Amino acid sequence: MFVPVTVVKLRFLHILVLAGLFGVLVAPASAQRLMMLGSGAVQLNVSPSPHEGGTYRDTDESTRILWNQARSRSKVTVSTFAPGQSYRLYAEAVNVKRGVSVGRVELRDGMHDTDLIVNIEKKKAGFANIRYIAEADITDGSDETAMSDQHTVTFTLTEQ
Questions:
Q1: Predicted local distance difference test score (pLDDT) of residue 126
Q2: Which residues, 6 or more positions from 65, have their beta carbon under 8 angstroms from its beta carbon?
Q3: How far is Cα 82 from Cα 88, in angstroms, rounded to an integer?
Q4: What pLDDT was estimated at residue 51?
Q5: What pTM does this model have?
Q6: Averaged pLDDT for residues 61-70
Q7: Nearest alpha carbon to residue 107 among 11, 2, 19
Q8: Please, is 93 exposed, middle or buried when counting C-beta atoms within 10 Å of its C-beta (0-12, 13-18, 19+)?
Q9: What number is the average pLDDT over the span 47-64?
Q10: Average pLDDT over residues 2-31
Q11: CA angle at residue 86 from 80 to 91, to 5 degrees?
Q12: What is the mean pLDDT of residues 113-119?
């Protein structure tokens, strides 16, 4: 018995996240600082299979941000630069100390600064882990086997 074999191309998602951190002057005499621990480059891979369907995810929590004592209530915002973005990428602050996470934020190319952590306590240093979540469906992208997005992610600490 002869059974024809069909070759199905898998779509492969490779997202490289480059996290950049910048301090912002809140008042002329006091600077707030935002620091990062962990790798500046995060790699997420998603390989959806046409035989299984559904949404495929990869996550990374290897980045931690820290801030110094603020003279006023503050917040951390996030934005991204990702020309030609094809896939979905989210950032979420988890294990937040001295602030409140707003939950999952979708990172889209050209987005404006979007709140990630709010109500950072006045005169208190704090920290949070950053969870990146990449998602792809088998219908995303093209028939190429090595589609990828590259994001430059920027976190900003500013007065609320």
A1: 93
A2: 21, 34, 35, 36, 37, 76, 93, 127, 128, 130, 155
A3: 11
A4: 57
A5: 0.78
A6: 88
A7: 19
A8: buried
A9: 75
A10: 46
A11: 40
A12: 96
Conformation bin of residue 53: beta by default, left when phi > 0, alpha when psi is -120 to 50: left
Please, are residues 148 and 15 in contact by the beta-carbon 8 Å criterion? yes
Residue 131's CB is within 10 A of a number of other CB atoms, namely: 18
Share of the chain above pLDDT 70, in %: 68
Residue 104 structure tokens? 């999952």
Whether the CB-CB separation of 132 and 16 falls below 8 Å is answered with no
**Distance in angstroms (rounded) separating the CA atoms of residues 131 and 92:** 5
Q: Domain coordinates of the chain in residue numbers?
A: 13-139+148-159
Residue 134 to residues 20, 41, 105, Cα–Cα distance (Å): 18, 14, 12
* Residue bearing the bigger pLDDT, 84 or 147: 84
Among 68, 80, 84, 58, residue whose Cα is nearest residue 24: 68
Distances (CA, A) of 22 to 79, 149, 150, 156: 12, 23, 20, 6
**Predicted pLDDT of residue 147:** 66
Q: Which residues of 27-63 are buried (b: 16+ CB within 10 A; e: fewer)?
A: eeeeebebeeeeeeebebebebeeeeeeebebebeeb
pLDDT(98) > 50:
yes
